[in-house]
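Many introductory courses stop at the sequence. We go one step further.
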Amino acid sequence: MSTASHLPLSLSQIADRNVFCYRWLNLFYTARPYYPIMALLFGTLGISNDEFLLLNAIWAIVIVLLEVPSGAMADLLGRKLLLQFSGVLFIVEIGLLLLIPFFPAFAFWLCLGNRLLSGLSEAMTSGADQAITYDSLQASGREDEWEGVLGKNVKVRSIGFSLILLLGGFLYDSDTINALLEPWGFSLGNTRMYPLILCLIQAVICLYLANRMIEPETATTTTAGAKKSGDRVSVMDAGRQVFQVLKWLLKHPVGIRIIAGGVMLDSVARVYTTLNSEYNQAIGFPVWSFGLIGLGTGVLGFYSPYLMKQLGLWVKNPLREFVVLGLLQLLILVFLIQGIPYWGAIFGVLMIMNLGWADFIMSKYLNVILSKEMRATALSVKGLAINLGYAVMGWVVASLIAQKESSAGFMEKIESLPYLFGGIILFYCLVTYQKLLSTNLITKKDQ
């Protein structure tokens, strides 16, 4: 019995383990309980609004600067090592915030450390988790299951993300918790650090899951990579890896078109998501109901994989999928700016769901056309493009809003969004129109 339990895992068993770990690592890493009350939480820790904006700007800069180099390091050193390091950083970054009540005089510096480590951790995770999972499926001859893996991930994230964020918001509300416990004679006092404690537990789970993952080549034959030979990997090696990936993308522009289509959908939807609470208030919802709206978004997101699969079977071209979803998003925006009381929340929910749809299509097709040696780097390029697209779109929308009178209502401030997005869709169609007509966009040459 003991001998059998120590037999090496087959490639198929490795794939099963990695798929399981990827699914739950993805959930617990991205669904952080403090997200819905992040600005309030940092205020509780003694951070002013302008300091909060500065800290998040620093966080974004770290991700933009390190996302692609970290993807290259994942391809050169191994995906698991990067995921393990990311898990350690996740634990430390939350630990720094938990130290602030004991060292309030260093609140800003501890928060700065948190934002720096958080940005580095996110950059290292980007691309590596998908790459190791797809590698193991490919090694076992099961890469056709990738779309199903993504679909199940969307379902788990849709429900899990909403529940974790709902729990985080609830734990922060000390008054409500203590009022509920009062009839039984209990009181938890100030619970505003509880979301961080829950997040620390998630960080430990993420590190455990990263340790459980297996790179398929480490379980079978060794390869000629630096990780196997014991050679050191230098900054120059990472730079050469990035250059090779960019060169490949230029020779295979289908990858660029797929990333551009995802950025087109993601940028506008993500900007709306940052304004979502203001929109819900504008159509009549009280603040306490926002968590329930988020839960409803998660429930509807459970059915997204089926809809995306049917869309792919119908249009038979990833670029067409982006255009169809783009036109749907444009229609949603038209109804969104009408500010329909209460019922308008339906359009807000659909807009947020577009984020998941864009990522689903990009992940589905990019992993198919990318070789194993460059997969993590290229997926990091995708992440960088998304962040830059969001930054540019955020700046454009902020500039448009700034031109409105300060007394203007929220719907009036965003009324130009449909025109802006309509122009982006038209430009994308003009640039890719020849490939939009193709039913065989991804050829053997691209794979």
